[in-house]
Amino acid sequence: MSWIKTKRPRVLAVIVAALVGTMVGLSAITPAQAATARNGICETGEFCLYYNSDQQGSVSDFKGSIPTYGTGSTCYEYKGSGAGKGQCVKNNAASAKNLTGKYVTVFYKSNYAGTIDNFSPGSAANLRAYLKNDNAGHRVGVSGSASANLEYGLYHSSSARVNAYYDGYVNTPGRHEGIDIAKSIGSPVYSLTSGKVIRKTEGSRGSGGLSTLAIYNSSLNKTVVYLHLDPYNGLSVGSTVSKGSKIGYEDWRGVSKSGAAHTHFEMRPGYQTGAAKSVNDYTLSNPIPTGFWAARGYNACCRYS
C-alpha cells in the first residue's frame, strides 16, 4: 500500500507533465502557420499580387519590399495555382491584397519611381487603371498608421491626395522631380522635416507667380523645396523650422488656374535655394525620394488621383 501511495503521485506527475508538454507543443504549432513567402499562398504578414482582377488567378506572395520584379529567367513569378502561374509578376498584376499590417505602395517603375497606387492594411482591391498590368515593384510602408503617410505629414489631414509622384525625369512633357499633393486652397501646410529657411519668395496667383520656400537641414545636407504655397508670414530667411510646424497654406502661386492648386515638394541633395526645373537646373541629381521619406518616418503614399 505504501508503494501505491508513494508511486501514484509520481505517475500522476508524469501524466500531467505529458499533458502540459502536449499543450506547449500545440501552442508552438500555431506560430508555425505564419507566412511563408513565395509559397503561392497569401498569408498574414504578406503583400500579394494576383494575375487577375478581384484577387483571382495565380498569386505571388511577398514578405517585404521589392524594388523591381525583374524579367526573364530571374523574375519573380506567380506561384499559386490558377491563370498566370509561372509568368513574371512585372507588368502582369491586376489586383492585390495587403496582409502586412502596414501601408504598401505599388510603383509603375522599378526602384520605387513613377506613378503609384497604395493599399492600406487589410485591404484587397484591383490596381488602378494606370497600373493594371503596368507595375514594376512595391514598397512596404514604415507604419500601419495613416499619420505616417506623406499627405498626412504635409497637411495633417487624411483627405489630401497625391496628384503626381516623382517620375524619374522621363515624364512627358517634362520631368517631375518632386511630389505633388493637394487638399484645398487655404489648407495649412506643415514642414516634413526640420531645418532653416534659406529662401522665401511669396509669388502671386497665376502661372507667372511661382512661390518658393526652401528649408535646408545641415545634418542631412538636404534641402526640401516647397512650391505654389502661400508661405507663412511668421517665416523669413534664417528662421528655424521644426518637423510638423506650419509653413504656409495651399495656394496656386505659379499654377495656371485655381482648380490645379497643390503643394509641390522635392528633396534636393545639398544646399539648394530652388526646385531643379524652376531654376533651369537640368542636372539629373535628385535621387528617387522614396527611401529618404521612409527614413524620415513617412510612407510614400497614398491615393494617387
Automatic annotation (TrEMBL):
Keywords for this protein: Signal
Domain M23ase beta-sheet core: 175-269
Residues spanning the signal sequence: 1-34
Superkingdom to which the source organism belongs: Bacteria
Pfam families: Inhibitor_I36 (PF03995), Peptidase_M23 (PF01551)
PANTHER family per UniProt: MUREIN HYDROLASE ACTIVATOR ENVC, PEPTIDASE-RELATED
The protein, known as: Peptidase inhibitor family I36 protein
Organism: Salininema proteolyticum
